[in-house]
Design a protein that fits this description.
single chain, 214 residues, Arc Repressor Mutant, subunit A, Beta-Lactamase, 2 domains, 6-stranded antiparallel β-sheet, two-stranded antiparallel sheet, elongated
């Protein structure tokens, strides 16, 4: 900590990060141990975060991330979208396919930015706000492989066919973990298979988006 930073704010943010990393919540004692501070400090932090709906406590006293975090997340989407658009435009124009940026929203994959190519006679229609289960489609599967640190292709992308739309193929690469956004960049096209040049290109685009978000 430096003189320019707030120790209380730092601890509050660490509480949120710890709670976001668990599905079952944490007790005050567990948070106290992980933060290295006494329980009284943790109680005050949780009480303050509860007032802003950023933390909630269940009947058993375990603290969890609160619904207020969703409101903050919605405000972040436009910023992420705007940062990603140049890379998506380049991707769509180069491949003649619909490019998209997809992020996690609960158990779904949610498209928050879509760019269609301008020069093709036809392409797959894909809209901002389109959502689907993480387990289906290249965009969601790419995100899951990053979670498992197990990209099923040594080139770092996932390709699928017909999982979301009959006759359509998709390829997507997860955003690098260090960019702070859990998501993927991909394309969808009307074809039976994904051409070999597409996979490496979506990997490059994912890196470009991550760089724009830093």
């Amino acid at each position: 900590m430096t003189t320019e930073t707030s120790q209380t704010l730092d601890r509050g943010l660490r509480v949120l990060k710890l709670l976001a990393e668990t599905d079952h919540g944490l007790t005050v004692t567990e948070l106290s141990r992980r933060l290295g501070v006494n329980r009284t400090v943790v109680y005050r932090l949780i009480a303050t975060l509860e007032q802003h709906a950023l933390v909630r406590r269940d009947a058993g006293g375990r603290a969890r991330v609160g619904i207020g975090v969703l409101g903050l997340g919605r405000q972040v989407h436009p910023l992420v979208r705007d940062a990603a658009l140049p890379a998506l435009r380049s991707l769509a124009e180069e491949l003649g396919a619909t490019a998209h940026l997809t992020v996690v929203d609960g158990t779904d994959a949610l498209a928050i930015a879509v760019v269609e190519p301008t020069w093709t006679d036809y392409h797959v229609a894909y809209r901002t706000g389109f959502r689907h289960p993480l387990e289906r489609g290249a965009a969601g599967r790419a995100i899951l492989t990053r979670r498992c640190k197990d990209i099923d292709n040594e080139d770092g992308f996932v390709a699928t066919h017909g999982e979301l739309e009959a006759g359509a193929s998709g390829a997507a690469a997860p955003l690098p973990a260090e960019c702070g956004v859990e998501g993927s960049v991909g394309v969808v096209m009307l074809s039976e298979t994904v051409p070999p040049e597409v996979g490496p290109r979506v990997v490059k685009a994912a890196r470009e988006v991550a760089d724009a978000l830093r």
